[in-house]
Amino acid sequence: MKNGKKLTRNQAEMIKGAGLNPENWLVVKNLHDCMEIVHRETGNKRVITK
C-alpha cells in the first residue's frame, strides 16, 4: 500500500461533505472523478466521488 498524504483544504471539505472527519483520513489517490482515502488508524479504504 502506498503512503497516504496530508489533505488539502478542498479535499478536507469534500470529506466533510461525505460525512467523515477529515482529521482521521489521508489521501492515497486523487483522480479527476474520484478520490481514494485511507483511515489513519485502522487502514480502511474508501472511495469518494467528486
Mean pLDDT: 95
Number of domains: 1
Q: Uncertain spans, ≥5 residues at pLDDT below 50? A: none
Profile the largest sheet. Answer: 3 strands, antiparallel
What is the helix content?
Answer: 10-25%
What is the strand tally? 3
Computed Rg: 10 Å
Share of residues in strands: 25-35%
Helix/strand order, N-terminal first: HEEE
Going across the biggest sheet, name each strand in turn.
Answer: 1-2-3
Tertiary shape: globular
Cα(first) to Cα(last) distance is: 23 Å
Provide the structure class.
alpha+beta
How is this structure best described in words?
There is one protein chain. The protein is of the alpha+beta class. It has one domain (about 10-50). Helix content is about 20%, strand content about 35%. It contains 1 helix and 3 strands. The chain has one helix spanning about 10-15, and strands at about 25-30, 35-40, 45-50. A 3-stranded antiparallel sheet has the order 1-2-3, with helices on one face. Strand 2 (about 35-40) and strand 3 form a beta hairpin. It is globular and about 20 Å long. The termini are far apart.
